[in-house]
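Please produce the structure of this protein holding magnesium ion.
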Amino acid sequence: MKIAVLPGDGIGPEIMKQAIKVLDFFGLNDAISYSPIGGAAYDLFNDPLPEATLKLALEADAVLLGAVGDWKYDKLPREFRPERGLLRIRQELNLFANLRPAIMFPELVHSSSLKPEIVTNLDIMIVRELTGDIYFGQPRGINKNEKGEREGINTMRYSESEIRRIAHVAFLSAMKRSKRLCSIDKANVLETTELWREVMTEVSNEYPEVQLSHMYVDNAAMQLIRNPKQFDVMVTGNIFGDILSDEASMLTGSIGMLPSASLDENSKGMYEPSHGSAPDIAGKDQANPLATILSLAMMFKYTFDDQKKFDAIEGAVKKVLQDGFRTADIYSNGTILVGCEKMGNAVVERLEG
Ligand code: IPM
Ligand code: MG
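Below is the modeled complex.
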């Protein structure tokens, strides 16, 4: 078992330290190799995804990533920015299938900004396409047009095969859950997503048990707030998935709780919290490490096919919440406020097996 650990920037290193304690608990210290990514890598090697980091990630069975980005890099040319490192590693590893579960832990119902009855027992799986769409489409850039005026260009594009392969991931995920799949597009305006809808409908013929529905993205954004429990598995393109997954995460109380898996065709994966690098609280021992720890749990489930370790880690996280431990982002009256380090320790103390 080879795990590449890429802590990244901001709160990345401190949340990663907590996940590593969990790996230590399972005696897996020898499986880990570290490498920098994002701003941390730029500072050392002038490249947000250095050759050595990419090589390590390509050779590993799975990658565990903290977070990338810091305001101090925002003025750099785009290819040197931390986000570029993240986008490139997703592309180079062909991690086209991004799974972002939004699950409500009963103890956190009151951390949500929505009424308890709207979010209690919420359990949504967002399947986001991750290596196509306007994120990678050419042409792109900021150029002068005929009038000598600056013009920004990005291109939304999806090929049929790109849509087809993410469709299969989504249908298979629906088969394992409640057999309901909602595909999100903007087919009333955008041709790219008109094709998306057509291909989703074609693929649905191979999954007669799954009930496929379609929804426009603007309506989906509204429905997620109005009545999120109508959704089970949602599938969508890269940019819509980016936006809707942040929205869905907040239904569950805090984006600091949500893990993600990004998979290739062979279930090799990169696992990272859905949240960003939060430079404003970096190094202050305030970050919530649970999304990273839950991402590690997803690694065991999806790449190593080890449901037992998944259950053990998720169980320990549940116990920590039941015992009242909260980082600042999920704190409410009557609970115990802890920092990142203590939260990590509390999880490890509750691990079994
Ligand atoms: C995410 C992030 C990234 C994205 C950024 C950091 C490039 O927002 O993983 O959702 O847009 O995909
Ligand atoms: Mg995002």
